[in-house]
Specification:
By secondary structure, the protein is α+β, with helices and mostly antiparallel strands. It has helices at residues 28-48, 72-79, 81-84, 138-151, 160-169, 175-185, 190-196, 200-206, 242-253, 277-290, 341-359; strands at 17-19, 22-24, 88-91, 95-98, 104-113, 115-124, 128-129, 209-217, 223-224, 227-236, 259-262, 296-301, 316-319, 324-325, 338-340.
Length: 362
């Protein structure tokens, strides 16, 4: 859950409010609603008095939304791995999408995610008086380096998950669909990759992406800059590494006077889960029961969850579907975060049945 400023909200963000068919509060959609469902599921299973055939564990951890604070999932994997040892994990990241008219359009199973990592790109030189300009201005040198980063496109890659989604997208007859058909047949087709990337949803998961997000340069209006620096944020494709991406940025910039450094902390990279029918099958079967006719698709997240910390433990993490969100995301991380009451309770029933199926409870 991210912070919220009470004075900016229409309603108190720290009080759960039900209004016009919605729950409002900070974190109600991301992801206190699902947390409440997991706790409720454990209570219902306990009250049923039936012993599951498989062990069921629940871990509610902190720190997912920040890189600087203590992270509970990371700590558990490093210090108490036996507590979280499992065949697989159900996590956030999946869900459902509602249309503008409130109808259910799609269910998504998150299968894999990119790794987020930031790099600092820095140029330094002696500087001097602005009345005596010199050719090696740190700001210009940095700007040229960042333009090379902008122009570079990492190679297109596919996972089993992204291939499923791209094959569906390729069925459209537009330019992006045609380009994806070419790219699926030949991932080295650079021109097809360029056209496919016009669709921002495709571009987000087609390859590693690096983009400049912050600038810091100069120290006085009448002085030549002694230092110019930028933050480049990368979303690294599964199977690639933090250090390998840094080396690629160095090669792309091609200037030994431009330093590229990893900005700590360096997080683990999530392992890419398989489309295991023992996991995905029950999700699809129960979706047909609870949400008949709604397609269920696997997806890879361009963002990040705490699932990445389970990579070193070799535990597969799946983002469970079931809870439908608004077309605009329901104000997650923004103002007046909300979730439909009916969506939450429908998701509660679906997820309860899903867990029962996995652990062998009738």
């Amino acid at each position: 859950m991210v912070e919220a400023r009470r004075e900016d909200w229409t309603r108190d963000p720290f009080t759960l409010i039900e209004e016009d068919g919605y729950f409002y509060a900070r974190g109600v959609a991301d992801m206190k609603g699902m947390n409440a469902v997991w706790v409720d599921t454990m209570i219902r299973l306990k009250r049923a008095g039936t012993t599951p055939k498989r062990t069921l564990k629940m871990a509610l951890t902190c720190g997912e939304e920040t890189a600087e604070a203590f992270n509970g999932a990371d700590w558990l994997v490093k210090n108490r791995r036996e507590l979280i040892a499992a065949d697989f994990v159900l996590n956030e990241g999946g869900g459902g999408r509602l249309g503008g008219d409130g109808r259910r359009e799609l269910l998504s199973i998150q299968v894999g995610e990119k790794a987020a990592q930031s790099y600092r790109v820095t140029v330094t030189n002696p500087g001097g008086h602005s009345s005596r300009p010199r050719p090696d201005n740190a700001i210009y040198q940095l700007a040229e380096a960042l333009l090379r980063v902008r122009a570079y496109v990492f190679p297109a890659k596919f996972t089993d998950t992204t291939r499923v989604g791209f094959e569906l997208r390729a069925q459209r007859g537009d330019a992006v669909g045609v380009a994806l058909r070419r790219l699926l047949a030949n991932p080295d087709d650079a021109e097809a990759a360029r056209v496919a990337a016009i669709d921002l949803n495709v571009n987000a998961i087609l390859q590693t992406n690096c983009v400049t997000t912050r600038l810091d340069a100069g120290h006085a209006n009448n002085a030549l800059p002694q230092r110019a620096a930028a933050t480049v944020n990368c979303r690294i494709f599964p199977g690639e590494t933090v250090e390998g991406t840094r080396e690629t940025l160095e090669k792309v910039i091609g200037d030994p006077e431009v330093k590229v450094e990893v900005i700590p902390p360096v997080r683990p990279i999530a392992i890419n889960p398989p489309l295991d029918p023992k996991v995905v099958g029950p999700m699809k079967a129960l979706a047909e029961k609870h949400f008949p006719g709604v397609p269920v698709l696997p997806s890879m997240s361009s963002g990040a969850t705490d699932g990445r910390y389970f990579g070193p433990a070799n535990i597969y993490v799946y983002g469970a579907p079931g809870i439908f969100c608004e077309p605009d995301g329901g104000g997650v991380h923004g103002l007046n975060e909300r979730i439909r009451v009916q969506s939450l309770y429908d998701g509660r029933d679906y997820l309860f049945d899903l867990v029962k199926t996995y652990v062998g409870v009738r």
